[in-house]
Amino acid sequence: MSPGRVVLVVGASGVLRPAAEILRDRGRVVVGVGRGVHPMPSGVAEVAVDARDAGALRDAIAPLRWVDALVYSGATSEGSLAVLQERTPGRTVHVRTLTDVGSGGRYALSRLQLGRTGDDARPWHSPQEISAAALAVLDDGVDRVLGIVDARRPGS
Questions:
Q1: Where are the beta strands (DSSP E) in 14-148?
Q2: What is the average pLDDT value for the chain, to the nearest integer?
Q3: Domain limits at 142?
Q4: In a domain, 19, yes or no
Q5: pLDDT for 29-57, tens place per residue?
Q6: Range with the lowest mean pLDDT among 21-25, 76-80, 107-111, 148-152?
Q7: What is the mean predicted confidence (pLDDT) over 66-88?
Q8: Pairwise CA distance, residues 96 & 2, whole Å
Q9: pLDDT of residue 3
Q10: Do the domain assignments include residue 154?
Q11: b/e for 37-48, b at 16 or more Cβ within 10 A?
C-alpha cells in the first residue's frame, strides 16, 4: 500500500481500533465505521452506522471513496459484507470470528480467521494481536489463522 491511500475500517472503535491507529500513523487516511457507541481514534474519520444493516451502510458510505478495507465480521452481516466487497477496489480483509468457521467463501476476500489462544485464562486474542494479524493480511494478501480453530466446534 502506498502512503495516502484511504482505508475503510469496520470495527475501528472496537477490536480493530489498534489497526486504525497504526494505519493512521503510517500516513493512511482512515475512515472508521461504527455504531457511534464508542469514540473513534483521534484522526480517524467517523461514519456512524450499524454496519449489520446493508441498506443503511450502503447509504452512509455512498459518497465515500476508499481503496482497501478491514472488516470485522462481528460488526457486519452477509449483505453488508457484499456491499463492502462491491465498493472496495483494492484488498478487503475479512476478520472472521469462530462463528464464521466453515461459512462463506463466495466473496473475493483476504481472510484472517480468529481462533482461541489455547489459554483457558485468556481464551481470546487482544485487539492488538488481532489488529497486527489483520494488518499483515492487508499488507501481503496472505490468509492467516490467529490461534486454534477446531472446525468440529465452531463458535467455541
A1: 29-34, 45-48, 68-72, 92-96, 110-114, 144-146
A2: 87
A3: 6-146
A4: yes
A5: 999 999 988 999 999 999 999 999 999 99
A6: 107-111
A7: 93
A8: 26
A9: 40
A10: no
A11: eeebbeebeebe
Residues 142, 85: contact at Cβ < 8 Å? no
Please report whether residue 156 resides in a domain.
no
Supply 69's cell numbers: 478495507
d(CA 130, CA 93): 12
pLDDT at 121: 73
CB 52 within 8 A of CB 80: yes
Residue 23 lies in a domain: yes
CATH of the domain at 98: 3.40.50.720
Strand partners, 68: 7
8 Å CB contact between 99 and 129:
no
